[in-house]
Fold this protein.
Amino acid sequence: MLEAAILAPTAANRQAFRLIVIETKKRESDLKRIYPRDWFTQAPLVICACAVPAEGWTRKDGKNYSEVDATIAFDHLILAARNLGLGTCWIAAFDPAAAREVLHLPADLEPVAFTPIGYPADAWKPKKRRPAAELVQYFK
Ligand SMILES: Cc1cc2nc3c(=O)[nH]c(=O)nc-3n(C[C@H](O)[C@H](O)[C@H](O)COP(=O)(O)O)c2cc1C
């Protein structure tokens, strides 16, 4: 999973992301401050993706791509996890201040997303998605 994440393409190959691997055992109460759901800490691992804006490629108009870098790397990790039969869940609704404090994040790291990683207790459900005709537009 980590190899898949590290192989992710990044803008100008800046690799402006960090992944923090956290063992949940005995850290449940700290982790619940970050995201207060039981299933978050039931998995043996939680991974946090951080952007490093100071390392990110910046477009001429000032847009910094470090969050995009972190997001692509994280999605590679999520897809590799699925391929191994592991369950994940993207989490954006976490408390960033608690994440900074609990994980001792330096100021130059921006937490972007978390996921628990573990063998899922539930069966896989079919995905509900809009039809392609709604999501894809052809420019004519
Ligand atoms: C960027 C992003 C942020 C998300 N944040 C959360 C979250 O904070 N909590 C949560 O339970 N699910 C979160 N999800 C999961 C989505 O709700 C889920 O992927 C979506 O409902 C589709 O479900 P499915 O992938 O199981 O089909 C997030 C997903 C993405 C891509």
About this structure: Residues 7 and 105 are 24 Å apart (CA to CA). The chain has a mean pLDDT of 97. The beta strands are 17-23, 45-51, 110-117. Residues 89-93, 127 surround flavin mononucleotide (CB under 6 Å).
